[in-house]
Amino acid sequence: MVVLVSPGLDEARLELGKALEARMMVTMVANCTVSYSGRTGSDIGEGERLIVLKGDGCVLVHRGRDYQPVNWQPSGCVFQTRIEGGRLLVKAVRPSPLETLTIEMDRIEFLSTFNLKDEAEFILHSSEEEMQKAILAEPDLIEQGLRVIDFEKKVAPGFVDVYGVDSQGNTVVIEIKKDPAGAAAVKQLVEYLKYLSPAEGKKVRPIIVAPSLAKGVLPTMEKMKIEFKPLTLQKSLETLQKRMKSDQKALKGWLGDAPSEKS
Amino acid sequence: MVVLVSPGLDEARLELGKALEARMMVTMVANCTVSYSGRTGSDIGEGERLIVLKGDGCVLVHRGRDYQPVNWQPSGCVFQTRIEGGRLLVKAVRPSPLETLTIEMDRIEFLSTFNLKDEAEFILHSSEEEMQKAILAEPDLIEQGLRVIDFEKKVAPGFVDVYGVDSQGNTVVIEIKKDPAGAAAVKQLVEYLKYLSPAEGKKVRPIIVAPSLAKGVLPTMEKMKIEFKPLTLQKSLETLQKRMKSDQKALKGWLGDAPSEKS
DNA sequence: CGTGCCAGGTGCCTT
DNA sequence: AAGGCACTTGGCACG
Q1: Residues A102, A135: one domain?
Q2: Which candidate among A45, A66, A133, B253 keeps its CA 20 to 30 Å from the CA of B24?
Q3: pLDDT, tens digit, for every residue of A128-184?
Q4: Å from B256 to nearest chain A CA?
Q5: pLDDT digits (tens, 9 = 90+) for B181-221
Q6: Domains identified in chain A, total number
Q7: Are residues A200 and A244 in the same domain?
Q8: How far are the Cα atoms of A20, A162, B35, B95, B96 from residue B78, in angstroms, in the given order?
Q9: What is the domain extent for residue B215?
Q10: Which positions of chain D lie under 7 Å from any protein Cβ?
Q11: Do residues B131 and B79 both lie within one domain?
């Protein structure tokens, strides 16, 4: 770990080079201009910003406010540093698509380099997937007697979240949204319908599963005979929990009856 | 500006509190766990991370790699710090939607606080806009004799990028894409067509303007009689440059002929 | 405030 | 590479 307060440009460039070589993380605070050129282009004039360069070749330039960086570069960039006209230039070039981020610093308040030890696994309790899992495990969440035939089923314009048959033999097509379902969700489902046909003498029942409906979509849904079944992430998680517990119990019972061998 | 290397928890908390109070930016490197709960939830175990808290109430937790933060909170959070069980807890609560980010640090490598002076304006050279500007300035880029009537014209499902009349009096509807135009662009244009009618005895000519076409869209375009006019960002920028130069020349000439007064 | 739409979206997956 | 789509998407404009 290195910490420099108000380093000279040469000193900063040296430390920066060493750190990037060693694939360490670098954070700097400097007065700088930033320009980007690639898929589009951008420019920002003089100002003090936090600059982060990571060992995997990505860059973040943050201003004093806002969640998002004002400029950035994704992983996999090649770095290049140079001193020119009393300024420290840092270029981060991404090969494909070709785009270039250039940072020109004229006064460096601060520079530090780190080697972060971090082996932990990140666990996201993702929402739409949990809802889908819950429906697959417990189709009764949607309605009694529903049988799931397939999920992520490919149709021409995309993938049907859940595909099944109801107790009357009608085809059921489910589109899941974790957020209040808006016009986009309806449109998506309508698209799928064009490519799905029911069994002889049966219907196709499109169903949107979401915590709630956005305001303007009810008319369209009625016109297209799309049903709505409310389901929250919360409820889905509870269902999965219960499932897991009963599965464990079943497993335990099984093991009690016929202890498994060590493999 | 404050820079602390390996501060104690109490010292860190004090400095943190002062900085947040003063709406300064804080960067820390610490061994920590992070948990998030709100729209969904997440957890990550012990590891060293870069933590950034900004004066507008947003948080970033960055690992040693990846462009994206592993955890975060958008602007507008309320911060809360506490020492508990030999750990420094930082909570960032966002009121609406209610979500909570909790960072528990047990060893702080480093903490610094800054007040970034940055008044610069960020300028994005958005490409689609540049392409549109170029077409408005020089309709001949599309074809000889095109006259532009309107742009960002409102029709029921959205906005027509450019709307005009060709040399034969046919209505021209242009959809601009900065990337290779795919099925989405075609669909969008088809939507607009439903709400546009040509002049008496004339046609409506839908045109997609983009650097190129995606693979599968040609059949649809032929079926819907949609034309394609290739135009790159590059070419658009050149056109605008030329325009600007000739405008400047015209301005200079004007000034030469009739010098302006000082205002 | 909710809803819709754009972004240098990003990331992940499949063909 | 291209297409499809979710994301703690974030962000802005607008009714």
Answers
A1: no
A2: A45
A3: 888 999 999 999 999 999 999 988 888 877 899 999 999 999 999 999 999 999 988
A4: 33
A5: 877 778 778 877 877 888 889 999 989 888 888 777 888 88
A6: 2
A7: yes
A8: 35, 40, 16, 8, 11
A9: 127-238
A10: 1-11
A11: no
